[in-house]
Specification:
By secondary structure, this protein is mainly β. The protein has 6 domains: about 30-330, Neutral Protease, domain 2 (Orthogonal Bundle); about 350-455, GOLD domain (Jelly Rolls, Sandwich); about 465-610, Jelly Rolls; about 615-705, Immunoglobulin-like (Sandwich), CATH 2.60.40.10; about 705-805, Immunoglobulins (Immunoglobulin-like, Sandwich); about 810-904, Immunoglobulin-like (Sandwich). A 6-stranded mixed β-sheet has the order 6-7-8-9-12-11. It has a 6-stranded antiparallel β-sheet with strand order 27-26-29-24-31-32, with no helix packed on it.
């Protein structure tokens, strides 16, 4: 990185900072490994090396992007040599001062003598450390020396158009006696890379791992090899790729690798997880295992006594990336005390989806994360394409954390938790797919959630997401952006875009002339991508208040800030040059352009969603039986955010309550209901328990069943007494001793009942269907008489539709219910018919070819409505095939027809 050149201009009596800042391209150094399965026959090599102007020449690739490898001879100076290493610099790079003696000394010292203080062995050089970590070099030429070549890598890099450049590489052709330079060589870029930057030392470590790996496994899978090379600089205390790039885009197949920064971030995090969980022995074993990819991990870990499959490892890794909690299950869901950035997902919610269905997809060997961390009383429904290797981990962030592995191979999952928002405030779902299939295949999922309240998030910004360029700043400079809060809120996250992955410090100010009121130190930054830093404790901001967010380098490193050249930064964007904050437009870039745009810094604020109190009582029905538990619970829920006052207003003397009045600020209250069987006869008793509040009322339908210990007795239960449609299913069951009989009679002609009578064995239940002809209903209320062995009960029914009241003598067959009809699922379909008289009647069923498949007789035909049931079977006893069928009702000389659909 380059420092500012500072020029002071005196204008009248005011001193302004008109400083020229260096603009950096939107490009990032990316460690680059050449493919190791190169066809050596495609190498086109010069006949002879060029004349040596420097100390020697090497064969160098003319174009690293070209599959057909062409070599050119390039002159080099030998700048350092001892018994272990030789460092060469391309003559043109040394002559242009892009490589200096200082650079060479720094690399040699790191290789031979010491590594940073956060290295595993800081008193050992890089070479000795890597031999301990990974193993030995190939030493193909048997001279025991490593060659480091500092060159301008031929990578077609253009600062105006290129997204990245080759920062270094290891070339396998150098291991061939007849094709390359036949030595243990790594290549380190010098242009546009800055060789004085410590980043260069991380590249050296990265490429040395490739060289070592080649010694043990020449055809290693690229993703695995690159993961090891990303681990090397981290173990040595050097800079490596930020994990945040992957943790903000986790839906990427682990074993897929295309050389993108996302893939480097991904394999780096995976390898770091394996290292932290299983230790250096596991790294040794995987590197030396002759098999490749996932098999290499399984073989190596099992050889060390870890009986774990790769799919199980993946599953644990998915959860570790969300939790990183060492205290759970022996640390398998953690990085054992090491910090990693928080996951950033498009499926994170601080409130609910309001019933909206959210759609997504999961790549193989990847995970998606759904998170709710605001509101209360969550009710979540999830659907996913069925697959045996799909999995769901449900995480309740309680104290301690609750983790549940859920079987979703069937394709759906539902959870309703009224403790959400009261007992705990965060619920996470980790959706994983451990299948090793093509990356083009995806697993679709969707979900919706309802609940109460939560937070509304607002992203305050003065720029778009687009970076026009990065501005290089040294460690003394602070970039700051001003924000204005319209209403009272909380800062929940800070987003920023830096050009490097060096850590930064974040400071919050109420006034730039005073000390910050909050500072966050050593925050990991994603190079040339948006980093979201989530505040563990959101910071309150007053209504109509100004505040400032400042970003500067942590630990004295140079860094660069993203800049949007949108011309709206005056009064909003600031820069501290080491002494005080000034408007950013007091500064210039090299081309002489004033900086009147904005820094790429955003404030994510949240404010609570308020909703009036609302009473909801659950469940809506309770059934008490004398031989069951004599106590049941109901939940008094406040699904608003305001205070709710409630009381039990009306109830039968058959029950008593643990509480009858209360105040509920949020969440729910459990109430015990205790029935009293002592003063009642055998039978079924129904009543409504009314719960009132200062806002609304709700009720619980209570059913008390006392068995008859001496005689047979039947009873019935209706799910509703109102006809919203034309069918009600009524349960009739035996609550006595021995077989019980029932009969249903005295009902109007527009109501059909099936069956009207039956004998029910002790403890059994049957379903009685009630159907109406809505065109003939003559009253809003009507009913029937239920007769059992004990006596008679009249039950009133209601009709909510329009009363037409036509009394018809016409023969008629209605559309069956259900329709479409699935025999194996529905058991039977009811066919409502209206008869003219009591003459012989039949119902015939034909397929679409006109073939008769079943004939149903009415054994006791009566004038008016009757129900006929069909179980979906043909005359042969087999289920009917899917398709359209015609129902033909015949009575005397009259016939009527309708049709239905059968599904299998």
């Amino acid at each position: 990185m380059k420092y500012f050149r500072i020029i002071f201009l005196l204008l009248i009596s005011t001193q302004l900072f008109s400083q020229k800042l260096y603009k950096e391209p939107v490009a990032t150094p990316a460690p680059f490994e050449l493919q190791q399965n190169i066809d050596l026959n495609k190498i086109i090599q010069p006949l002879a090396k060029s004349a040596v102007v420097g100390d020697t020449t090497f064969y160098i690739r003319k174009n690293l992007r070209d599959d057909n490898v062409k070599l050119e001879s390039v002159e080099f100076y030998k700048l350092y040599e001892n018994d272990i290493i030789v460092i060469y610099a391309e003559c043109a790079e040394y002559d242009s001062n892009r490589v200096t003696d200082e650079t060479v000394t720094k690399i040699a010292n790191s290789l031979l003598h010491q590594t940073p203080t956060n290295s595993l062995n800081p008193n050992l050089g890089m070479l000795e450390n890597l031999r301990i970590f990974f193993g030995d070099f190939p030493d193909v030429d048997e001279n025991g020396k490593l060659f480091v070549l500092l060159i301008d890598a031929r990578d077609e890099y253009d600062p105006e158009t290129s997204d990245s450049y080759v920062a270094g590489y290891f070339d396998p052709i150098d291991q061939s006696k007849s094709k390359g330079n036949y030595s243990d060589i790594i290549y380190i870029d010098t242009n546009p890379a800055q060789t004085t930057d410590d980043h260069t030392l991380g590249i050296v470590a990265h490429e040395l791992q490739h060289l070592i790996h080649y010694n043990y496994d020449k055809d290693e899978s690229t993703w695995l090899n690159e993961g090891f090379s990303e681990l090397a600089p981290q173990m040595l205390g050097y800079e490596s790729h930020s994990y945040s790039r992957f943790l903000s885009a986790t839906n990427r197949k682990l074993t897929e690798f295309d050389g993108s920064l996302l893939d480097y971030s991904k394999v780096a995090l995976w390898t770091f997880y394996i290292y932290k969980r299983f230790g250096l022995d596991a790294i040794h074993e995987v590197l030396r295992d002759p098999s490749n990819s996932t098999v290499s991990y399984e073989n190596s870990l099992q050889s060390l006594g870890n009986n774990v499959s790769f799919k199980e490892l993946l599953s644990d890794w998915f959860v570790a990336n969300m939790l990183n909690d060492q205290t759970i299950e022996d640390g398998r869901y953690s990085y054992f005390g090491e910090y990693i950035p928080a996951i950033e997902s498009e499926y994170f919610h601080s409130n609910f989806t309001g019933g909206e269905i959210i759609h997504g997809e999961i790549a193989p060997q990847a995970a998606q994360y759904i998170n709710f961390d605001g509101g209360k009383n969550i009710n979540l429904s999830l659907d996913i394409a069925p697959h045996s290797l799909s999995e769901l981990t449900l995480i309740k962030h309680t104290e301690p954390i609750q983790i549940e592995k859920v079987d979703i191979s069937g394709g759906n999952y539902e959870v309703e938790d009224l403790e959400f928002g009261t007992e705990y405030g965060k619920l996470s779902l980790v959706l994983g797919w451990t299948a090793s299939v093509s990356n083009s295949q995806k697993l679709d999922f969707s979900y919706s959630a309802i609940g109460v309240g939560g937070y509304e998030e607002i992203e305050l910004s003065h720029s778009s997401d687009t970076v026009d360029y990065y501005i290089a700043l040294n460690s003394n400079f602070h970039a700051a952006q001003k924000f204005y809060s319209e209403s009272e809120s909380e800062i929940s996250a800070i987003k920023f875009n830096c050009g490097t992955s060096n850590s930064v410090d974040i400071m919050l100010y109420a006034d730039l002339s005073r000390n910050p009121f909050q500072t966050f130190y050593d925050v990991s930054s994603d190079a040339q991508g948006w980093t979201t830093y989530i505040l563990q404790n959101p910071i309150p901001i007053s209504e109509k208040a100004d505040y400032y967010i400042s970003i500067t380098s942590a630990n004295g490193n140079e860094f660069s800030m993203g800049y949007a050249d949108n011309g709206t930064g005056n009064g909003w964007a600031y820069l501290n040059n080491g002494s005080q904050y000034s408007d950013l437009d007091n500064f210039q870039i090299e081309e002489g352009k004033d900086l009147d745009g904005n820094w790429l810094i955003k404030s994510v604020n949240r404010r609570e969603i308020f909703k009036e109190a609302e009473l909801v009582v659950e469940p809506d029905t309770l059934i008490f039986q004398e031989n069951d538990s004599t106590k049941k619970r109901i939940r008094i829920n406040n699904i608003g955010t305001e205070v709710l006052r409630w009381n039990v207003e009306k109830y039968s003397g058959l029950y008593s309550f643990s509480d009858t009045v209360g105040i509920l600020s949020s969440g729910m209250k459990m109430i015990d209901i205790i029935p009293d069987f002592s003063n009642i006869y055998a039978g079924l008793y129904e009543s409504d328990i009314i719960i009132n509040s200062d806002v609304n009322r709700d009720s619980v339908h209570a059913i008390l069943i006392k068995r008859n210990q001496d005689n047979p007795q039947t009873a019935f239960l209706l799910p509703t007494d109102t006809f919203h449609e034309n069918r009600i299913k009524m349960k009739v069951f035996n609550i006595g001793t021995g077989a019980g009989e029932f009969k249903i009679n005295e009902y109007p002609s527009y109501l059909a009942v099936n069956p009207t009578s039956d004998i029910i064995a002790e403890g059994d239940t049957i379903i009685v269907d009630l159907m109406i002809d809505s065109s003939r209903v003559t009253a809003e209320s009507f009913g029937f008489v239920f007769e059992n062995d004990i006596g008679e009960v009249y039950r009133s029914l209601k009709y909510t539709g329009q009363i037409i009241g036509k009394d018809s003598e016409k023969l008629r067959v209605y559309v069956p219910s259900p329709n479409p009809f699935t025999p194996q699922t529905d058991n039977y379909t009811n066919i409502l018919v209206q008869l003219k008289n009591s003459k012989k009647t039949s119902l015939k069923i034909f397929n679409i070819k006109g073939e008769l498949i079943r004939k149903l007789r009415l054994n006791n035909p009566q004038k008016g409505l009757q129900l006929v049931s069909w179980d979906g079977r043909t005359v042969s006893g087999n289920f009917a095939h899917s398709g359209v069928y015609f129902l033909v009702l015949e009575q005397g000389n009259s016939r009527e027809t309708t049709k239905m659909l059968v599904l299998k």
